[in-house]
Amino acid sequence: MNPAYKQTCFVTSVFERRQLPAEAVAEAAFAGRSNAGKSSAINALCEQKRLAQISKMPGRTRALNFFAVDAERTLVDLPGYGYAKAPTALRRQWKTLIEHYLGQRRNLRGLMLVMDIRHPLTDHDWQLLDWCQARGLPLHILLTKADKISRGAAASTLQKVERSLRERKVDASVQTFSTLKRQGVEQAHEVLDAWLGF
């Protein structure tokens, strides 16, 4: 495991485009449906319990949160999507900000899409996958909460997701992941290392 991630620290929260930091360092972003385990995954990858905010209430990540791994590399936690109870205007604001970031950010090296393994490939997931695929953005999928189902069921879901991606001609790698059991952390690190230039 790359020890550099242990030093990751919070930098800033961005609520609108004009607040975005300069495009000076390599960035890897994390996206996913509300309550898919995105913040928990970031914490596990950085071996810190409270780095990214974890909430039992979906939709609490309302900004792009930037975390510096070191002076040359940053992780970005995007607002969770698909939370129906969020006000319409707020959902529209999130969508506009996320689309601008993913579509225009020149120093963005890849997107980790976080999905609950029990509910993978929702309509929102497909929309984001297709959108990023059309823009040539490297994609890696974390099927989180793998500890919630049996090993056999997890392996079967992984195969189904891989098959669905091939059928849809979406170029994305995929793996199972468990924050609780630290399953898949090293595999995810290998992807991040390649994107961020370690």
Total count of helical runs of at least 4 residues: 5
CATH class: Alpha Beta
Distance between the termini: 12 Å
Low-confidence stretches: none
- What is the overall shape? globular
Number of domains: 1
User: How much of the residues is beta strand, in percent?
Assistant: 15-25%
**The CATH homology group name:** P-loop containing nucleotide triphosphate hydrolases
The spatial strand order of the largest sheet comes to: 1-3-4-2-5-6-7
What is the structural class? alpha/beta
Average pLDDT, to the nearest integer?
Answer: 91
Annotated CATH architecture:
3-Layer(aba) Sandwich
The count of β-strands is 7
Q: What order do the SSEs take from the amino end to the carboxyl end, as H and E?
A: EEHEEHEHEHEH
The helical percent reads 25-40%
Kindly report the CATH topology. Rossmann fold
Largest sheet: 7 strands, mixed
Could you walk me through the main structural features you see in this protein, from its secondary elements to its overall organization?
With 198 residues, the protein is α/β, with parallel strands linked by helices. The protein has a single domain, classed as Rossmann fold (3-Layer(aba) Sandwich), CATH 3.40.50.300. Helix content is 33%, strand content 23%. It has helices spanning 38-45, 88-104, 123-134, 151-167, 185-196, and strands spanning 9-14, 26-32, 64-70, 73-77, 108-116, 139-144, 172-176. It has a 7-stranded mixed sheet with strand order 1-3-4-2-5-6-7, sandwiched between helices. The radius of gyration is 16 Å and the shape is globular.
